[in-house]
Specification:
single chain; 179 residues; alpha+beta; 2 domains; 4-stranded antiparallel sheet; two-stranded antiparallel sheet; 6 strands; 8% strand; elongated
Length: 179
């Protein structure tokens, strides 16, 4: 077997694994119209439209790479930390109407949608990633610093991206079911 053939096989295997990773991260796979999708194993593994396969493989690769991604501070400004206070994380409180996650009475992270606030999933190692409020629990009664703020902002960016990818995976699976 020549080098080009080996490289092609490696690409196909990688795409298959990414495709499976996308399927296993679907939030809807266990509910509703997907119950019959799971029963028909051949149909769920081999979609009729090859474009579904490639798009799901691409999204699976993006999900897989999320934990390894280093996010620039530029992207964390989507979730600014605002307010004047004592910089002590007391008890977290979410205000859905303003989409803010408070760490005390006056300081908060902004632009956190209810979907993002409640989002939990598994990481690439199968470990449960808890909703964002759980990430702050180890820091309660301690002073928040720039490293903690950046860490929380990076987690918010990762989870926002992950939620978007998973919702797109669910949409593609619904399209595949209808075709």
């Amino acid at each position: 077997m020549d080098m080009h053939s080996k490289a092609a096989i490696q690409v196909v295997i990688s795409q298959c694994l990414d495709y499976i990773y996308a399927l296993t991260n679907s939030t809807e796979l266990d509910r509703g119209p997907f119950e019959s999708f799971q029963d028909d194993f051949t149909r769920s593994v081999l979609p009729k439209n090859i474009d579904y396969f490639y798009e799901l493989a691409y999204l699976g690769a993006l999900l897989r790479d999320l934990d390894r991604a280093n996010y620039d501070i530029d992207k964390t400004d989507l979730f600014p930390f605002v307010g004047i206070g004592d910089d002590i994380i007391k008890e977290t409180r979410y205000d859905e109407s303003s989409e803010r996650l408070y760490i005390n009475a006056f300081q908060c992270f902004e632009n956190i949608s209810p979907e993002l606030y409640n989002f939990s999933c598994r990481d690439t190692y199968g470990e449960m990633k808890f909703p964002i409020q759980e990430i702050l629990k180890p820091f309660v009664n301690s002073e928040i610093n720039c490293h903690t703020i950046t860490y929380v902002q990076q987690e918010l960016v990762k989870r926002r991206n992950m939620l978007g990818y998973i919702l797109r995976i669910d949409d593609i699976l619904l399209e595949a079911m209808e075709s």
